[in-house]
Design a protein that fits this description.
- The chain is mainly alpha-helical and 188 residues long.
- It has two domains: 1-52, no CATH class; 72-187.
- The protein contains seven helices and two strands, in the order H-H-H-H-H-E-E-H-H.
- It has helices at residues 2-13, 19-27, 37-50, 54-93, 99-129, 148-170, 174-187, and strands spanning 132-136, 142-146.
- A two-stranded antiparallel sheet has the order 1-2.
- Strand 1 (132-136) and strand 2 (142-146) form a beta hairpin.
- The longest helix is centred in the middle third of the chain and has 40 residues, at 54-93.
- Residues 66-73 have low confidence and may be disordered.
Length: 188
């Protein structure tokens, strides 16, 4: 019986919100496709929290603890593993460089590892959500613009390539390096 009640509640939550509530939520900037009873309840809870309702604040905190934090931790752990793997891979290329260059190379490799992980995350987000996002600047101004992820990706890929070029220039054997650099660029 409890499963049936949960199923019915899920059905109700996913139903379109009443027109009056839908209009209010659209005025807050939500798109019509995102508006349902569940969204209406979440917005009402959020509004109560803004007014200082301690129960609403506690409910939001409990929801955030049970839903969001494990995802963030998981992403952070995956990111750290990815960065370490990339740093290790790049460090192997620079084992034979002179001692005086190792500190500069170390920092460049750290930056390259971080940017590589970030670019990978951005690429996954762009693949999931597309390159455009909706915007609404008032009652009648709306449309599509490049997503924040696309803008960040475009800026970061330029910086990443500049770091890789700097690393490339510091490698001792430029003929061997060209092949490794080409392979590295092709992986991107």
């Amino acid at each position: 019986m409890q499963k049936e009640i949960k199923k019915q509640l899920d059905n109700i939550l996913n139903q379109p919100a009443p027109d009056k509530i839908k209009a209010q939520l659209q005025n807050l900037g939500l798109s019509e496709k995102d508006i349902n009873n569940q969204t209406a309840i979440a917005v009402a809870l959020y509004q109560q929290a803004l007014k200082g309702n301690v129960n609403a604040i506690n409910t939001i905190n409990k929801m955030a603890e049970t839903v969001e934090l494990p995802t963030v931790v998981s992403k952070r752990e995956n990111r750290e593993k990815y960065v370490k793997k990339e740093v290790k891979r790049l460090t192997k290329l620079f084992e034979t460089i002179p001692e005086e260059q190792k500190e500069v190379v170390k920092q460049l490799i750290q930056n390259a590892g971080f940017m590589s992980a970030t670019l990978d995350e951005l690429m996954n987000t762009i693949n999931e959500n597309g390159i455009k996002e909706e915007y609404k600047n008032g009652a009648n101004q709306f449309g599509y613009k490049d997503s924040v992820e696309v803008k960040t990706y475009n800026a970061m890929i330029k910086n990443y390539m500049a770091v890789i070029k700097q690393l490339n220039d510091l490698l001792p054997n430029q003929n061997n390096l060209k092949d490794e650099f080409d392979r590295f660029v092709e992986e991107i």
